[in-house]
Each structure stands twice: as structure tokens, then as C-alpha cells.
Amino acid sequence: MKKKRPIVIANWKMNPGTLQAARKLFDGIKKRVTKIQGVDVVIAPPAVFLPDIRTRYRGSKIALGVQNIGSQSGGAYTGEVSGEMVRSAGATYAIIGHSERRAMGETNDLVSQKTRLAIQAGLTPIVCVGERERSGEGAYLEIIQGQINAIAKGLSPKEAHELIIAYEPVWAIGKKAEDAMRPHELYETVLFIRKTLMAHVGKDTAFMIPIVYGGSVEAGNIHALSKEGNVNGFLVGHASLNPDEFLRIVEAVELLV
Ligand code: PGA
Q1: pLDDT digits over 159-190, tens only?
Q2: pTM score, two decimals?
Q3: Where are the alpha helices (DSSP H) in the chain?
Q4: Is 168 tagged catalytic?
Q5: Residue identifier of the C-alpha nearest atom 2 of ligand 1
């Protein structure tokens, strides 16, 4: 089986405020990132900007994603957008179960359902897990285990191969580089996630599933996190809104290839 390339995913969240600003941001990233080799780059803008951004870029170096999909494949669900819809508008990846969505009420069951819907729609799901806090007694491991169990339970080997896990400890999101997780803690947590996956999908598949880290990834901590963190890539929030900083992150990941 061919090993997957490292991946860097830009999660723009509910930014920027207008289509014009989204075009400018995308063009800035495109200009810098298309010289990168050996790293998969995914931009996940707000879904409404997706078709426009797609028409600005026909190359293959940048893939597009969405930050969520609806919980059904279609029908009378006012305000929802299905995986199939975003796939047909140019997305090939979908972030699922981000902690900011879990905070709005998404449960492990719903995240599992959306993961399957994404795969059925032909999207690669980037499924987020992570504890809200780290207590001394290791209760956070149970939280992560429960989240992984819900996602991986009953996935066929073919479905499991589509999966990307994004480990994002909630306490480390949206801060500064120095508040991100320490590389050695990340290393241990990634091993724990692989062990948990193994119980569902077997060893070979568990080692094929990319695990990326998210939570205050910036140019200032990317070298240590990518060298020692044992991850296959990064999910980048606020630093992906700055094309120069985002490029520095992608370049640091490229050095590891
Ligand atoms: P951050 O966000 O890089 O701003 O911490 C990451 C995320 O929430 O996906």
C-alpha cells in the first residue's frame, strides 16, 4: 500500500467577511503554495465561497474542502447542505465534528453519521477529536477513546482508508504558538489514537490513516511539532488567514518529506 503524503489543511472558519476578501486571501495562498511539492494542501473556506474559489483555480496542487456537511443526504432539512452538494460544487474534503460544532451540540453519534455520509458522497472526511481539558488522572484519554470508537466502529476497511483524523485538543485552539501542545505530549496522544483505531480496523489500516494535529499551529511552533509530534500533517485555523505564515507552515512540513 502506498503511503499517503503529508497534508496541511486551512480551516478558515467563519472568515473572511466578504467574497472579495475570500478571493484575495485565496489568490495570496495560491500564489505562494503552488510551488510546493510533496505536501497536499487543502483550503476549507466557508461553503458559500466554494464555487467562486473553484473557478479561480483549476490546478491540482490545492484541493478544496468544507467545514461541515448536513446530517442527511437530502430532503426537507431547511438550511442544510449535503455532502453530495458540496462535492458537486468542487469540494473533495469535509471537516467533520470540529470542536466548535461539537460545542453547538454535535454528538459522537452525529459525527459518526456525517463521517459515513461524507464518504458516501465521495469526500475525504477530516474527523476532529480532542479533549476539552487535561486532567491529571487521564480522563481525557477516555474522551478521545470514546470519540474514536464512535467514528471507527463498523467502518469497512475501504471506508477506513478514506479517513483522516484531526487531533485538536480544545484547550489549545485559537491561542498563540507557545500555548499549543508540547511535541512529546502530541507524540504520546497520537500513539494512543493509533492504538484505539487498531482495535477497530486492524494494525495495517490503523497505520495508514493520517493523523493531523490542530490547535494554535503557527510558523513559530511548526518545526518542533512536525519534527517530534509523530503526525502526518496539520489543521491550521487562524494562521491560515495569513498567506505568508501559511506558506511557512507548508514549507516546514515539506522539509520532512
Ligand atoms: P487555530 O484553529 O489554529 O486557530 O487554533 C485550529 C482549528 O480550530 O481547527
Answers
A1: 999 999 999 999 999 999 888 899 999 999 99
A2: 0.97
A3: 19-33, 50-55, 83-88, 99-102, 108-120, 139-152, 157-162, 183-201, 203-208, 222-228, 243-255
A4: yes
A5: 237
